[in-house]
User: What shape does this take?
Amino acid sequence: MILNPGIAADSGLHAGTENLRLDRVQWRAAQAGQAPACRVRFHRYLPTAALGAFETAGHALRVEYCRRHGIDIVRRVGGGGAVYLDPGQLCWTLTLSRRGIGREKNLAAWLELLGKAAAQGLRAMGIDAVFAAPNDVEVNGRKLASGFLMLSEAALLYQGSLLLDLDIESMMKALRVPTEKLSPDGVRSARGRFAALHDGGVRLDDTLIQEHLLAAWAEQLGIEFFRPASAGPGPGADDPAETSLVADWDEEDAAWHQTFVKTPGGVLHVRLQLNPAGDVLERAEFAGNLHLAPGNLLSMLSAWLSKTPLARLDGRFEEFFHTHRYDMLAITPADIRRGLDLALDRRAQERRFSLSGGQANSLMVHAPSGKAVEEIVREASVMLVPYCAKPAWCKWRHRDGCPECGRCEVGEAYRLAREHGMRVVTITNFEHLQRTLAALREAGTGAYVGMCCRNFYLKREYAFREASIPALLMDITGSNCYELQQEDLAYAGRFQVQAHLDLDVLRRVMARAGSAESRSVSVATRGKPDAGAIEKREGAAAEGIAEHGAEVRGPVVVERVQQVFDVHPGCGVALDAEPAAEEERVRILGAGGKTPEIIDRTADAHVGAARRGGLQAPALDAEINPA
Ligand code: SF4
Ligand code: SF4
Assistant: This one.
């Protein structure tokens, strides 16, 4: 094999900004085709939060924390997500001229080749490392190293970091969504997701690690490395304009219609501005923890779409991807278009729900079949409320239900839902959400509304996607478990701080919800109820079901449905095992102001049957059944 020459050097410990400067010099030299064909610079960082090439600081970092603690914020040359770097990690920047080397390879193929080589080098030292697509090296399923790539026609740059020591606390505090990729299976500590070498008692000399990594890359790339006397990255000064952070996005900025889309390749953020008439796309911008090539793909797309009449947007968008060379890792033009459409829909949401721009931006729309938000709200028959919005002292905090005592916003949410005939479920932990969504899907629920924090939706979007039920989710405000780094407690239902519902948004949205009558639940049919359903009950409950079915006619509204977990067509209603004292009865109301009945909960928690001889009528409840 003909070997290309390569240079390897260790430039030591530097601040993030200085390491970035050195990376940029190295990257420019590689793109200019300067010899040698391959250059590897090993280095370490003083505490630094390194954004991916396409990320904004506000989306990825706790910027205030970083500033307060003197943590440098830099934007890497390579794509991917933000990482926290400190002296406990051995980092490298590998640049390679693509002239004659792997020109046919794309982002995914290069990440795999270079990541597998890194794992091979570590294995040669007795570490049980394997490559984990798309860009990690793991030991027993725990992350040991990560790699990030930038690709151009002429060159590639591969940045990576190997965990020797792990300062998990600083990492969690510096990164805003640090665990997005770290806890795929639920409640696991972030530390448990990493495998720092020193934690495992492995202490290896830096030079030894470097030599093994170089040997593996040399073998895969056909490079022969030598170490020059000087560790410099090559001639050239940095361009200050390149190292400055691009303007950050203010998620609350109502001047932009903003949204995000979760894709297999990362989270794509989109923001745009329309002309006053709303028929021309003035500007659109894109960001995300993505791997894309070329490095200016998103800015080219922004420029391409600028000033496009909406009537021509389809053609213009498609034309861009037909006329430009691009490589996107696990994200497609259709994903970008979906983000654009969701952002475009913000203006309509503002009008439909009388929301401000900022309020519309806080809505999270899950519309698997493209259902319009207005339709979702009109058809929603269920409201999901997070337990974290209930006060810590409330006995209902970790239970489904709320007797609407009026001492927190959740009570108002329950009242609004009741007014519109919606069933409410307080989600008490992540597994409960999964069970609830599965039950809603099973029951054929057409749509639901809900509240949760944006970070939860981003991280657990797959649960909503799997349920495949159209939903409108409203962001919550105040202290949330992400800001307090208590996600694990929150998922287990043990988070103790109170978040807040945005009642203004909720009221405006609920004003467009379907009426109580349209939420009527038909619990009775003419004649005898379904025998199979009766068989599921025993004793008094079965008798009650039979009797009830014989008496009640037509649709009924089941009030305070949060206490009800089981409605059998034609058979009756079963109560939660632990209802509040004042909730131990169910009021069944005739539709359209017909005589209501209140029936008491029986000892076995099943609602008793309606009495023969007509319904007893306490005073009509004007609130829910106006005469
Ligand atoms: S309104 Fe409901 S959730 Fe809020 S404090 Fe009262 S009972 Fe608890
Ligand atoms: S703040 Fe925490 S507990 Fe509340 S919705 Fe978000 S993830 Fe769930």
Q: What stands out?
A: The pocket of iron/sulfur cluster (ligand 1) is lined by residues 390-391, 394, 396, 402-408, 410-411 (CB under 6 Å). The longest helix spans residues 333-353. The domain at 362-516 is CATH 3.40.50 (Rossmann fold). The longest strand covers residues 4-14.
